[in-house]
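Each record in this resource describes a single protein on a pair of labelled lines. The shape at a given residue is found from the number at the same position. The record below illustrates this layout:

***
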Amino acid sequence: MGVRRDDITNAGRMQITIEVLSSNRDYGMITGLAQQYDVSRQTIYDIANKGQQVLLAGLHPGSHGPHPSRKCISVDRDLLVRGSVVLTEAGVSQRDVCFCLEELLDSKVSLGWVNTQLAKVEERAAFANEAFQPEIEESLSGDEMYSNDHPNLLLVGNDSLYIYELSRQPDCEGETWGILLSDKSNCLQFASDAGTGLSAGVKAAEIKVHQLDWEHLLRPLWGQAARLEKQAYAVLKELEERSRLFDQTTTPGRLQQHLDQWERLNDQATEKIAVYDAFYRIARSVDDCFALIDLNSSQLQDATTCIQKLKALGEQLEAWSGRIYQKLSSNLKNWASRLFSYQAVLKQVLDPLKTRFGPQGIAALCRIWQIEANQRRRASSLPEKQQQQIPWEESLDEAIALMGEENLWKAWNEVCLALGHSWRGSMLAECVNGLLRTMLNKRKHTDQGCLELFRFLHNTRAFNQGKRAGYSPAKLAGLEVPDDPLLLLVIKEKCQSN
């Protein structure tokens, strides 16, 4: 029987191997093992040799890192369709979809087949989008973008990020927007940029509250401040370099040359620093009006005062030379009155909280919220943080004294929920436009079907991170959606073996 002796257990074979391979084994041990197991001496040697081979093979170092389990993928038509949709969702062009399927799944498909399957899926997505009819219980924001020289009009919920409308239109004039917004007049507020077509459409649809976007004002403002700061630092760097060259020079002529250049650069640096400091003060004054809560009064910003302040700052910039300053001046003067439209709606949200918890307690919590929002939004120096800590602690003590610790946390959650909404613009619609641009840029031809597919996938896919993590826009809007939304497009669920 040799090594095939079935009556010798694995533990016994292991013990035989260890004793035989030991360099300190006693004389006559092989004979003793052969008598113990009733086998020949050669069988003992064979078992030890077999055990040595197993140890050498099992203890050989393998590759480093994790070892994914081997899996056999069953490729069928449904998997190819699913792959085509997912790759399209990721912004892959139709031609590249064919390449990816061939490389990843070893399945060669034609461009015509991909286009045909996507057309069917887009048609089903349009039916699914039509079937979704959530109630509009949030504010909306709108934006327009162009692809293949055609405008696409977009309506997004500011709380859920649900796309209520995404359509290809012949133009983006006021009449077109008015028709699109005609059944959205009951929304809390509508936010947009300062486009004339959008403004005319909002007026035609009789939407009561139209809020202009603060980001369209602040983005170029702080962008110019960053450019002025960069220019000032560049001149200071040249000035430092000229000082170094001056110290290394010994000849009188060269010294005079470096001195003349240094004086010229010093005048430029002084001028650019002064320009930056003056513009930074203007930008900071405009940015202070962006806050929802006035820290001095712990109430909503006084719209009349802020409007007058913005217009006065616009008049200051009007005297500055440069196209960017004229544009900023025009925006400040023309947009100021429409940048605070949100306050009427926000006041309606805060009033019930003041009734429940008391106006002074809610005012203290609003002040705390604004202090923390300012710290998250822009970096502050240590002295500024210490200075902000004093009113934060005073407001907290006041809120505890007025409401008690138990009601404090309930009121704080309500205040954070109320003030945490998107009140001041259409930046969320532009974020969705940024996602859509990835898909449109990869397609030589776009139509309404492409937009319907993007709308469906965006509304039904759950967010991976952020405050909406684990929820899709459709679920946040009150709709029931399966965990695998592609089932709604008549695409079979993924095979369990895959």
Observations:
- The mean pLDDT is 88.
- The longest strand covers residues 140-147.
